[in-house]
Amino acid sequence: MKKYLTFFALLGSLMSSPVLAQNEAVSGGFGAMDSNQMALLIIIGAVIGVIILLLILMIYLMSFISAVFRKENPELVNEPSWWDSFKQRFVTGDIEEEQEKDKLMTDHSYDGIQELDNFMPPWLQYVFLGTIIIAISYFSYYTVLGFGKTGVEEYEEEVRIAAIEAEARGVSLLASIDETNVVVDDSGAALSAGNAIFTANCAACHAADGGGGVGPNLTDQYWLHGGDIKDLFKVIKYGMIEKGMVPWEDQLSPKEIQDVASYILTLQGTSPATPKDPQGELYSGDDESAATEKSEAEGDESTVASDTTAIAE
User: Fold this and answer.
1) Domain contains 299
2) I need a labelling partner for 236 at 20 to 30 A (CA). Which of 1, 29, 81, 270 fits?
3) How far is residue 181 from each of residues 45, 170, 241, measured CA to CA in Å?
C-alpha cells in the first residue's frame, strides 16, 4: 500500500508542477498582469491541489478498506487486489498466459537467434486505437466535413486581422496629429485633398489662387503668425478670432488640417491674378535652422570657455 501511495503522491506532484511553474512565471512578469488575474491563477492552483489531495485520500481509503476486508475474510487473501486486476487488464495483460504460448517465429532466425513475437500490452493497444480514432476524426473534421480551416485559410485570416489592426493603428495615428508633430505631406492624395478643402473653406477669404482678399496673401514669403507647417496647423486649428480667422478644429480632422496646410505651402512663389500687398514679417525656411546653428555655436563657445578656465585654474 505504501508503494501505491508513493506513486500517486509523485503523480500529484508532477501534475501540480505546471501550475507552480505558471505561478512563478506570473510572479516574474507581475507587471504584465493585474491583481485579479493573479488571484484567479492562485485560486485555480489551490483548487487543483485540493483535487489531487482528495484523489490521494480516496486511493488511501480504498486501500485501507480492501485491507480490512481481506483481514475479515481470509478466503480473499489469495485473490488479487483491485489494483492488480486493473494492472493486469489494462496495463500489462496476462503475461504468464502469453509466455505459455509458442511465440517463437522459426522463419525469422539468424545465426541461431530466433525472433520472439511478443504480445502488445493492453495500454499500447489502447494508445494505438486512440491514434486511429483521432486520425479519422481529424480527417473528417478538416477534409470531409470542412469545418476546420486549412493552413492557407488560417494564413489568410491572420492577414485579414493584421490589415484591420494596421488600419486601426493608422486611424489612431492620424487622429493624434497636432501642432507639435505635424509634418508636410506632399503626396498627391494629400495635396489633392488639401486643394479641395482650401477651395471649399478658404478661398472665400484668401482667393482661389491664394492671392488674398479679406485674408492675407498666401503666395508671398510674408507671414503674420509664422510660415512653418506647425505655425499653419496651429492657426488653422485654433484660428485668430480677433482678425476674423475662425477655428476649424471642430469641422476638420487633424489629417485634413495637415493636408490643407501642406497645400498652402505649395502656393509659395506662385503668381496670383490680383495679389494682396505683403503683410507680416518676411519668413524664410532657413530661419529656424539658422537659429538652431546659432544656439549650438553658443553652446560650443561656452564649453570651450569653461574648459579654458579649468585649465587656467
Assistant:
1) no
2) 270
3) 49, 15, 24
pTM as predicted: 0.45
What separation in angstroms does the CA of 82 have from each of 7, 9, 112, 236, 263? Answer: 16, 19, 42, 87, 88
Is residue 54 in a domain? yes
pLDDT in tens, 169-188: 877 777 788 888 888 888 89
State the Rg of the chain over Cα.
Answer: 42
Compute, in degrees rounded to 10, the torsion defined by CA atoms 20, 21, 25, 26: -20
> 236: domain CATH number?
1.10.760.10
Bridge partners (DSSP) of residue 115 are 105
Whether 228 has a pLDDT exceeding 80, the answer reads yes
d(CA 232, CA 82): 88
Cα torsion angle, 24, 27, 33, 39, sign: positive
Residue 181 confidence (pLDDT): 86
Domain boundary among 79, 101, 117: 79
Q: Give the number of residues written for the chain.
A: 313
Write phi, then psi, for 269 (nearest 5 degrees). 85, 0
Is the separation of the CB atoms in 175 and 254 below 8 Å? yes
Q: Which of 63, 79, 95 is the last residue of a domain?
A: 79
Distance CA 73, CA 65 (A): 12
> Does 291 reside within a domain?
no
The CA distance from 15 to 45, in Å, is 11
Count of structural domains, the chain: 2
Question: Would 243 be classed as within a structural domain?
Answer: yes
Determine which helix (DSSP H) or strand (DSSP E) holds 90, and give its type and residue range. Answer: helix 82-90
Task: List Cα–Cα distances, 84 to 4, 77, 78, 90, in angstroms.
Answer: 11, 13, 12, 10
Nearest to 11 by CA among 38, 61, 51: 51
Q: In terms of residue numbers, what domain contains 202?
A: 188-285
Axis crossing angle, helix 82-90 with helix 122-139, rounded to the nearest 10: 50
Q: What CA–CA distance (Å, rounded) separates 52 from 57?
A: 9
